[in-house]
């Protein structure tokens, strides 16, 4: 048992030492780069790492048009409707006067999220349009001035927290409703980044007045963020959006200080890599290759392919159910709509690469979660009910990626989640090679976690490179079902000589 643990530790060490080296060459002195090398390891962050699955909710006044206006439909992301060209800004900015989600029931939403298996939830307190779902003191453009009146952020924080789901607050630093807001362009554009980096004092502002007004916007943003952290002490972290704005990047030093203020107010606060950039305009990862803030937020609607891609960072992936619709869009026929199995596969893939997976929901203007989403939540939840062990608190396994699916690990238990069921009903598992010449790995125990029946393990041979394989025979009961299934295995390192005896015992 100890030996297995040692080997796991060694494997991890070999995997990650490469990344550390890469990060350490030729360090540049940065004032506002990452303030930590390597991962954060306090209790709050350990918990974050163990979530496995989360829920995102995009809800705001854009849910009223739901991507349609005067009989016209946008293919744009519905939460961007203000800029779709189908509605005037004046019309859009007055939508809040109709916002009255009479069917909204925070407890119902939280219950559904719990049944889906989500362990954290991210809620849009303010999207780019600037509308605040909480009664902010610093603007009139809030939920307090709608017919609904009540504090939606509070209702959600309370309901989800009561279900044991941790809440994170999404906040866009873009605000089309504030007169001082200014973008200055997108730092992700190579041309803009080059200009930003070439002139030491590159100024994205066109006039002094604009720059002064941006100062107002900065105080406003700071006030709102401090307000959120003060108002909702039960929330666990902040999820930022929009931080590619050059005006924001230009203020890297100020943003860094603000981050420290927020953290001082809320010990354990978790902030992703999309809050601030270093002073050279590098986002997510600073000029030295270190991750800025607590986890990598680069994976919006995309997953890394390999562990190398993740650079050993903590990360999460937020995913829409249709192609690119976060807020409520009435017409889901515009793109492919993911199925529960698509989302489960992405979840387990994320987990197998040490990440969390977050599924987005876009409730409608009355506060209903659409039927399609409810069905999907149910589908994911039914699978999670049986197989959650393969998702919660797991990390990448010692097995290499194999064609049948993805594997995760917790302690000595390795979970093989099979998405591509082999036609011969035998899952061929390649076990790692021992570091010691006289030893080999064998599968000591294997079981199907649905129904917990033991699995039959047969010899799967050896390849010309000296790697060993075992076949796990899929019984009819499992094979007949169409859903992905999980086999839990334990490996044991044995004397090469005793393999034959051992094999007799398991086949
Ligand atoms: O809140 C969701 C998006 O609205 C937000 N981030 C996620 C979590 C986001 N804001 N900007 N972006 C993502 C990237 C920019 C997308 C754009 Fe477009 C492409 C803006 C204009 C063209 C998509 C297509 C949105 C409007 C049209």
From TrEMBL:
Keywords: Glycosidase, Hydrolase, Signal. Residues 1-20 form the signal peptide. GO terms for biological process: fucose metabolic process; glycoside catabolic process. Pfam families: Alpha_L_fucos (PF01120). Residues 36-389 form the Glycoside hydrolase family 29 N-terminal domain. It comes from the Bacteria. Belongs to the glycosyl hydrolase 29 family. This is alpha-L-fucosidase. It comes from Maribellus luteus.
């Amino acid at each position: 048992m100890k030996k297995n643990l040692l080997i796991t530790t060694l494997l991890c060490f070999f995997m990650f030492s490469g990344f550390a080296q890469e990060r350490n060459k030729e360090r540049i002195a940065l004032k506002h780069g990452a303030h930590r090398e390597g991962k954060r390891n306090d209790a709050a962050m350990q918990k974050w790492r163990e979530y496995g699955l989360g829920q995102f909710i995009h809800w705001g006044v854009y849910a009223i048009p739901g991507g349609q206006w005067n009989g016209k439909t946008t293919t744009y992301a519905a939460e961007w409707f203000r800029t779709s060209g189908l509605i005037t800004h004046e019309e859009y900015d007055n939508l809040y006067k109709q916002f009255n989600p009479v069917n909204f029931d925070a407890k119902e939403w939280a219950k559904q999220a719990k049944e889906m298996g989500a362990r954290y939830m991210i809620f849009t307190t303010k999207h780019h349009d600037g509308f605040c779902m909480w009664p902010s003191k610093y603007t009139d453009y809030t939920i307090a001035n709608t017919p609904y009146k009540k504090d939606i952020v509070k209702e959600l924080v309370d309901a989800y927290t009561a279900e044991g789901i941790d809440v994170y607050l999404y906040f866009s630093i873009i605000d089309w409703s504030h007169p001082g807001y200014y973008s200055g362009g997108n730092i992700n554009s190579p041309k803009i980044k080059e200009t930003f980096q070439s002139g030491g004092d590159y100024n994205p502002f066109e006039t002094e007045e604009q720059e002064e007004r941006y100062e107002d916007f900065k105080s406003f943003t700071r006030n709102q963020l401090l307000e959120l952290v003060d108002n909702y002490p039960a929330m666990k972290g902040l999820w930022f959006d929009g931080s590619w704005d050059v005006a924001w990047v230009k203020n890297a030093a100020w943003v860094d200080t603000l981050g420290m203020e927020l953290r001082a107010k809320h010990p354990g606060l978790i902030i992703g890599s999309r809050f601030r950039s270093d002073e050279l305009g590098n986002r997510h990862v600073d000029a030295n290759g270190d991750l800025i803030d607590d986890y990598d937020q680069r994976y919006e609607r995309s997953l890394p392919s390999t562990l190398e891609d993740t650079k050993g960072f903590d990360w999460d992936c937020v995913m829409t159910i249709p192609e690119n619709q976060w807020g409520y869009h009435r017409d889901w026929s515009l793109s492919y709509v993911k199925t529960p199995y698509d989302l489960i596969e992405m979840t387990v893939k994320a987990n197998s690469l040490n990440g969390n997976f977050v599924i987005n929901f876009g409730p409608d203007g009355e506060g209903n979660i659409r039927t399609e989403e409810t069905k999907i939540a149910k589908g994911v939840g039914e699978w999670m009910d049986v197989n959650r062990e393969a998702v919660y608190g797991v990390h990448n396994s010692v097995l290499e990626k194999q064609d049948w699916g993805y594997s995760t690990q917790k302690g000595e238990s390795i979970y093989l989640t099979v998405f591509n069921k082999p036609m011969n009903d035998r899952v061929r598992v390649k076990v790692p090679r021992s570091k010691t010449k006289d030893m080999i790995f064998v599968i000591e125990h294997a079981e199907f976690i649905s129904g917990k029946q033991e699995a039959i393990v047969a010899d799967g041979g050896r390849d010309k490179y000296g790697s060993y394989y075992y076949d796990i025979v899929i019984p009819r009961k499992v094979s007949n079902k169409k859903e992905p299934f999980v086999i839990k295995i334990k490996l044991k390192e044995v004397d090469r000589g005793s393999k034959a005896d051992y094999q007799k015992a398991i086949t």
